[in-house]
Design brief:
Blueprint lengths: L12 E3 L8 H7 L9 H18 L4 E5 L3 H12 L5 E5 L3 H12 L3 E5 L9 H10 L5 E7 L1 E2 L4 E2 L2 H10 L5 E5 L18 E5 L11 E5 L1 H9 L9 H8 L10 H17 L1 H22 L2 E2 L11 E5 L6 H12 L1 E5 L8 E5 L6 H17 L8 H11 L10
Parallel strand pairs: 1-13, 3-4, 3-5, 5-8, 8-9
Antiparallel strand pairs: 2-10, 6-7, 9-10, 11-12, 12-14, 13-14
Bound molecules: pyridoxal-5'-phosphate.
Family: Belongs to the class-V pyridoxal-phosphate-dependent aminotransferase family.
Pfam family, one: Aminotran_5
Cofactor: pyridoxal 5'-phosphate
Length: about 400
């Protein structure tokens, strides 16, 4: 068949904050024959990816892999550790925190939602005050989104842990790292997190379809008496059979091939280098945004996200019309504003498989798009980013011959 439209040359720029660009190596790995998930080869693969994921979460405890989107892993965290009517304290950081809260309500939990302005992270002082007031220990869990993908704000998880400890409160700490794991430093054990939730399609550079729980001994003990109904998500059967590298139901075998490859890429670059690379991209992007004279949504520089930057559109201009211009003319997808930020912000994803030039191309597409869409701005954003990238130390992209 003759195509009605010519194929756009060059690669599509997928600069939304997840799904992120999937590296060729990962795509090639996924393109292998599906094997018997009860056969001997599979056990080796299962053990390798489970142990690799422990290194990424920085935990000695259990990691669970579900064939599910991140939303499934949210549900798994709640239903394994809690009982109907349990009180949970959740922080309103943005759209994703709000979705997790809605899920908790649907599951029959009693949620106290600490309100936020969608421009700051979770407030550790508020958590501490609220827990200190809960002398009966009615609150069973504190839930925080590490990197709020709707706003580009990263919450300080060690500060939340300290707040819980200062209040001498036994609540479990649950953290959503769906958009931060593999891009921003995260330490499940050291930070005393009980359940960490994550997903495959953001920092881990995989297609959507896998999600994760990292589970502390305390969370596992809580699951013994927790009474929310659960079956598919049950940690117990998973952990028992995972010991030999197998799963209680058919796993997403081909995505696990991809995970094996992605883990190899992350470890060969070195997790600390991966985090430093993302920090540089975040800083370069913010310099571009400031040079354009536009406003960054995140108000607290200590909470700037290294995964994405949300940019406020000038009054009277549509963020969605601008994104459409960029897609039409430059074949690049930028993230849309979600729920109350709809049409008011656009989000620049700078996570996963990208390098200095990918970022420069992304920022060039935005600068040209601002011009084409008639959005008031100053020129020189790309130049500001280039000056920073060329002048700031980074691990060599390619080893010298
Ligand atoms: C993407 C995302 C989710 C939702 O994950 P799905 O895979 O779409 O179910 C939840 N929380 C955060 C922080 C996210 O970035």
């Amino acid at each position: 068949m003759i195509p009605l439209h010519s194929h756009p040359s060059g690669r599509h720029f997928l600069q939304i904050p997840g799904p992120s660009n999937v590296p060729d190596r990962v795509l090639r790995a996924i393109d292998n024959v599906t094997i018997d998930h009860r056969g001997p080869e599979f056990g080796e693969l299962g053990r390798a990816v489970l142990s690799g994921m422990k290194k990424v979460f920085k935990t000695e405890s259990h990691v669970i892999i579900y064939p599910a989107s991140g939303t499934g892993a949210w549900e798994a965290a709640l239903v394994n550790a809690l009982s109907p009517g349990d009180k949970v304290l959740m922080a309103e950081t943005g759209h994703f925190a709000t979705l997790w809260k809605k899920m908790a309500v649907k599951l029959g939990l009693e949620v106290e939602f600490m309100d936020g302005d969608w421009r700051h992270g979770a407030d550790a002082d508020k958590v501490k005050a609220r827990l200190q007031a809960d002398t009966e220990h009615a609150i069973k869990a504190v839930c925080v989104v590490h990197n709020e993908t709707a706003t580009g704000v990263t919450s300080n998880i060690p500060a939340i842990r300290k707040a819980i400890d200062a209040a001498k409160h036994p609540a479990l700490l649950m953290v959503d790292t769906i958009s931060s794991l593999g891009s921003i430093d995260y330490r499940h054990d050291e930070w005393g997190v009980d359940v960490t939730v994550s997903g495959s399609q953001k920092g881990l550079m995989l297609p959507p379809g896998l999600s994760f729980n990292a589970v502390s001994a305390k969370a596992l003990a809580a699951s013994e008496s927790a009474r929310l109904p659960r079956s598919y998500w049950d940690w117990k059967e998973m952990i028992a059979i995972n010991a030999k590298g197998y799963f209680p139901y058919t796993p997403a075998t081909n995505l696990l091939y991809g995970l094996y490859e992605a883990l190899d890429m992350l470890f060969s670059e070195g997790l600390d280098n991966v985090f430093a690379r993302h920090d540089r991209f975040g800083e370069a992007t913010r310099r571009a945004v400031r040079a354009w004279g536009l406003e960054i949504l995140c108000k607290n520089p200590a909470e700037y996200s290294s995964v994405l930057t949300a940019v406020i559109m000038p009054e009277g201009h549509s963020a969605d019309a601008f994104r459409k211009t960029v897609l039409t003319h430059f074949n690049m997808s930028l993230g849309q504003g979600l729920s109350k930020l709809s049409d008011k912000v656009f989000r620049i994803g700078h996570l996963g498989d990208l390098n200095d030039l990918t970022l420069c191309g992304t920022l060039a597409g935005i600068e040209m798009g601002l011009d084409k869409a008639g959005v008031p701005h100053r020129k020189g954003g790309v130049q500001a980013a280039m000056d920073y990238l060329a002048g700031s130390a980074a691990a060599p992209a390619v080893k010298a011959a």
